[in-house]
Amino acid sequence: MIKVIVSGVCGRMGEMIAKLVCEQADMELVGAIERQGHPAIGVDVGEKAGSGKIGLPVGDSLDEIIGLSDVVIEFTNPETTIDHLEIAALNHKAIVIGTTGLNETQVARIKELSVAIPIVFAPNMSIGVNLLFKLVGEIARVLGDDYEVEIIEAHHHHKKDAPSGTALKLGQVIADNLNRNFEQIVVYGRQGQIGERKKDEIGIFAVRMGDVVGEHTVIFGSEGERLELTHRAHSRLTFVQGAVKAARFVANALPGLYDMQNVLKIK
């Protein structure tokens, strides 16, 4: 039985993850935490997630319960994620990180601690998006420098970071397969007298509106044609299912840094 703690359990993703974990025959939800002072502290997590009372209250300290778990599933904010990662590493527990918006220093810390514990770190845990990562890399290699690349992403108006972690990952995958330095050639939107488009740049554009769960379109264009690949998430359930798959994978993995392509065995 895989013993799971869900961090950020009262968020849009956290509630759904807790509910799905409770439905798995090979998993047990042993902890659910939120930030200190959250109004749901002490509330039964099953009732909060819509699963019915399960006798497990929402807590506010990972330190106090980390010893009960095999895996922590983390969908919070960058600062909390790194704090919880440190606790997981200190206690030799696996962790799944779906938090986005982390800076370079925080990502470097994730890489450092993956020497000690198994970590699945992915900006998007949908199966379809991770197939998209693989496809755009292969397409970029085939098309080479003859095609220009633009990425458009859209999310709901509650999303705090832009562009999305998924859009950045798509750009990075494409740049790697074109032997380009992503940080040097990425362009975040365009405005004013910018001059002619540079051949090697990759443009990324963020749209925020309404209740859009997540949409990503990658466009490869030349003088005579364009190829567009689009992924649309209709429900957060696709990310939740991926997170649970990742927890099952990482619970039995050796220390190391993994992504969803490792989980899905498409790497």
Q: What is this structure, in a nutshell?
A:
The protein is built from ten helices and eleven strands.
The fold-level CATH name of the largest domain is Rossmann fold
CATH class group of the largest domain: Alpha Beta
Class based on secondary structure composition and strand pairing: alpha/beta
N/C terminus separation: 27 Å
Q: Shape, please?
A: elongated
The tally of structural domains comes to 2
Helix content: 25-40%
Per CATH, which architecture of the largest domain?
3-Layer(aba) Sandwich
Bin the strand percentage: 15-25%
Biggest β-sheet: count, sense, barrel?
6 strands, parallel
The radius of gyration is: 20 Å
Helix/strand order, N-terminal first: EHEHHEHEHEHEHHEEEEHEH
Tally of DSSP β-strands? 11
Low-confidence stretches: none
What is the number of helices?
10
Mean pLDDT value: 95
Q: Strand order of the main beta sheet, please?
A: 2-1-3-4-5-11
Could you state the CATH homologous superfamily of the largest domain? NAD(P)-binding Rossmann-like Domain
Structural notes for this entry:
- The protein is of the alpha/beta class.
- It folds into 2 domains: 147 residues, NAD(P)-binding Rossmann-like Domain (Rossmann fold, 3-Layer(aba) Sandwich), CATH 3.40.50; 107 residues, Dihydrodipicolinate Reductase, domain 2 (2-Layer Sandwich), CATH 3.30.360.
- Helices cover 36% and strands 23% of the residues.
- It is built from 10 helices and 11 strands.
- The strands form 2 sheets. Strands 2-1-3-4-5-11 form a 6-stranded parallel beta sheet, with helices on both faces. A 5-stranded mixed beta sheet has the order 7-8-6-9-10.
- Strand 3, helix 4 and strand 4 form a beta-alpha-beta unit.
- The longest helix is centred in the middle third of the chain and has 17 residues.
- The two termini are 27 Å apart.
- The model has no long low-confidence stretch (mean pLDDT 95).
